[in-house]
Amino acid sequence: MTTSKSPFSLLDGIFDKLGSVQPPRWVQDEAQNRLVLLLNHVLQQEPEAMARLARQKSRIALMQWRRFSLRLLATPAGLLEIAPDGQVPDLTLTITDESPLSLAQAALRGDKPAVRIEGDVQFAAEINWLVEHVRWDLEEDLSRIIGDTPAHYAATAARRVAEALRGFVARKTSTPAADASHPSSPDRTL
User: Fold this and answer.
1) Facing residues of 71 across strands?
2) Total domain count for the chain?
3) Higher-scoring residue by pLDDT: 1, 103
4) How far is Cα 119 from Cα 105, in angstroms, rounded to an integer?
């Protein structure tokens, strides 16, 4: 009898195997700029979030995971911009889990990653508030492009897919041995 494996198990070591490959600096810069545009778009939909961030103006947060990092500067307008190199961050947030697969599984379960926090406590509290309270209303943005009804159907379908993935991950991470030994387990491979 074989045990079942996650369809994502093939991805377990791919980041380690590609560890020496690094995209060109301009690709990294463009990806970071696009991320900042998205974050600012989401922030602009929440006046309270912008007010909280404006109180932290000129403070820099450094976010790190493995060899990837992003330095964000809080602006007086309550938005974010890429911080200039060389300035000491007021807050450093480091995701401690090295495995991309573990991070993806935790995200699908709705869990937050483990983060090591160093620096300004008040700034960390404001960032935590933003993480807890600010959400992207993707359905609203999509409705501006394709209309209300198609956007609603697309968002509903996406929620169902996400819920199915969460259920799959929960089953696989909660009792992997029990699922593999149970004869009626639908995820069992023969």
Assistant:
1) 62
2) 2
3) 103
4) 28
Instruction: Please report, for the domain that includes residue 61, its CATH number.
Output: 3.30.1050
Claim to verify: residue 34 and residue 117 sit in the same structural domain: yes
Quote the domain boundaries for residue 125: 23-99+111-135
Instruction: Give pTM, 2 decimals.
Output: 0.66
The verdict on residue 185 lying in a domain is no
**Does residue 119 sit in helix, strand or coil?**
strand
pLDDT of residue 4: 52
Query: Which residue, among 188, 166, 168, 163, has the nearest Cα to 177 in the 3D structure?
Result: 188
Contacts 24+ apart (CB under 8 A), 38-46: 38/136, 39/72, 39/80, 40/79, 40/80, 41/136, 41/141, 42/134, 42/135, 42/136, 43/78, 43/79, 43/80, 43/130, 43/134, 44/79, 45/136, 45/137, 46/133, 46/134
Asked if 147 and 124 sit in the same domain, the reply is no
